[in-house]
Every structure is written in C-alpha cells, then in structure tokens.
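Quick start: what a row looks like.
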Amino acid sequence: SRRRHTRFLPVSWARRCVQETDLRHVNKVKNLGPTFDVKELYTKIPSIEIEDVKRDENPSYDLENMIEQMLGVQQSRGAFGAYTPATLYSLLALQDFKENYPHKVNATRFEEVFQKGFNYVEFMYFDQGDSSYKGVLDDGRWWDTLLVAQGLHEIGENSSKLEPVVDYIIKYGIQPNGGLAYGWEFEYMPDTDDTGMIISLMIAINKEKYKDQIEKSNDFLISMQNKGGGFGAFSKGLEESFLVRLFAGKFINSAEIFDPSSVDVTAHVLEAWGTMGYTVKDFHVSEAVHFLKKEQKEFGGWQGRWGVNHIYAVGAVIPALASINYDLKEDWAQKSIEWLIKIQNSDGGFGESVLSYNQEEWVGKGYSTPTQTAWALLALIEAEKAGLDVKDAVDRAINFLIEDHKELGRFLDKSSVGTGHRGFLYMQYPSYANSFPYIAIGRYLKLRGIRL
C-alpha cells in the first residue's frame, strides 16, 4: 500500500525516455530492509562493503539538535525544502532516528510529521491525474502561471481576462515581503526571478490597479541586490564560502549549495526595472548592467543558471537592455547577437544541449527546440528594432516555430530545457513550450505590424 510509509520508498526511474518509450507511469516499490540496494541503477556494480553502524544508547547533542531543527522546517503541506527527494530523505533520517532512539521521540509528533510528509509526496507523485507534472520533484505553479499569462498577453488576449490570473497570483503566491514564491512550499523563500517577472506582468495588464503591489515587490527586489550588482534567486550574499566548501568536502559536487548572482535572474529583474521607467542613470540599474558586462564570456554569450544554457541567458539579457533603452549597438551587446546568428541551425531554429555546461564543444549546439528558439527570438527581435541586420535570422526562426507547431498542432519540447543544478540535474518544463514561443510570436507580430 502506498499509504503505508514505515519501510517503503517509491523510486522514480525516469520521467521520460529520450527515445519513444514513455516511463512516466512506471512505479517501483522497494523494501528498505537490511538487504536494500539499488543495483539495478548501475551498469557496473561498485564493490562497496556496507557495515552496520554501531550506535550509543543516547544520540549526541549535535544529532538531537539537528533532528529538532529538521522537525521545525517542515512546510505547511508537508515538504522539506519544497522538494520531494529532500522530503523523502528527511523522512528516512527521521525514521532512522525514531527506530534507534525511541526514548527520545515524541511518537505523536513524529507520526504527524510522517503523515504530512508522505501526503505531500503522494500528492506530487500520484495524485496529479493526467497532468504533465505528475511525479515531479517540486511545484512551480506561480512561475508557470505567470509565464503562460505573459504569453497570452503578448499574442493579444484581452487584459481584463488576465486580471483574475494576476489577482490569484497576488493573493496566494506573493508573500508579505513583496516577493513571489516559485510555487507551493516555496513560501519561505520567495525569489527575485519570479518577482521581477510578475512586476513586468502587472505593469502590462493594469499598471494603475497594481500600483501599490508593484512598489512593494520592487522594494523586495532592491533589498535583494548583491554587491557587484547581480541577483541570486533566493538569497542575498550567499555567493561563496571557503568554510562551507571545506566542510562540504566531496558533497560540494552533488548539489548547488550556494546561490550566487546569475545573469538570467539579474536580466529579468533589469527588464522589470525598465518597464517601471528606470534607466541606466539609476544606480541600482547601472550596477546590474555592470554585472552583466563583467560576466560575459569571450565568445559573446553568458551561462544560463536556470535555463539551458547560453541561449537562455542571451534571450534574457538583450530584452532587459532594450527595456532600459540601452544602445544594443554597443560592442558587447552586439557581440552576443552575432554569436546567436552564428549558431542558428539550418532549420531556422535554435538548440543547445545540456552537455554545454561541461563541454565547450557543445556550447550553442543542439537540435532545435521551440523554447530555445523563442529565447533566441526574444533577443533577435530587440536587435532588429535597434537597427541591427538580423531580419533574415528572425524570419527563419519564426518559420521554424510555425512548422514545428504544424506537426502536432501545439508546441512540445522533447528535451530538458530547464536547469536545476548545473552539470547534473536538468528539468523538463511543459509550461515553457506553452509560453515562451507565444511571447516571441506576439512580439514578432508587433514588430511586423501584424494584427491577429
């Protein structure tokens, strides 16, 4: 039974096979008894001797304190850290503590924690119906919703029909400090990326109506700007720590434990500031621009932190610069556009493999996807508006989107275009193919003076 949680763990082998086989509906349950192993995940079984851990009768102060802190950070719906894997690992740790030190456990409290935790996992893994988000590691509903709403607005949907969407996000997603949470269970750490994007959406839909909320959310953004002008996603000043690296040891490569300033997040904030009327004459804006210039790579692009990869970053930076009326003919800005032109695929689209994070030969290379093509278009459209000779590249990219849509009657990304942890964890966002292409198409129609 899935409800029985004492010693069983559902293992998700894969959300989608790159080939034709779809494994999303494969559920496997393994007994977490003394003989537990995951040998089926290896092509070559490692030779590791596992020995039982000898424990004292009582836990150490540090262990007991850590368990107490874990109990205190469970979110309202039952998650730990807002992620299903983190929740499962936390429950395993708590279960282990309970079994080895039962005299140190408040049974009622632990049972409530377990029930909430497994209810959350149950919801995320099994209770999503036929949704594309069934079995995912987290909930990003506010981010997804605002992107789709932005896409609808760009292709001409009446703003009055989108106001209820914005109202809903404000009521349930925006936190007391003005920041917008990524989704459910992220309320404890609203992020700057989502906040910048919702500001842009509020201004586009009804600037006067959302005037007070725009101001409050902007206060949050300004308070989160790092030294150097950039923005992390969730934190301020969590850019680097020698001591953390030292004590993390080998685990440093198994997770992104810092939240450094990133180009794409900074660009989305900068674009919001542009829609608010700020210019490079404003100090916080000039600091952000300085950060972007400093982070640019020799070939002209930037690494994408939350999207794959350099195409995502260029598609964020150039519209941001355009929003503050920055001269896109300046060498450093134009260099990024020239790089885009060079990497455009023969079919007119754009694509970049996740391998580009670790292997330079894959930078800017990959089969065309509607999302990555849309990101490139967002930059190219602004470049054409600025007088750069990119019309042919723009038209070819739009033709790719048209032909891609004809194939299925909708846009669909068959690869992972979202970045979780650079170098080893990437995500498929079904909402991206249902938002970014429409944002790009809407802006293209305005560029050409075409009305639907």
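That is the whole record. The beta strands are 8-11, 28-31, 418-421, 425-427. The chain is about 50% helix and 5% strand.
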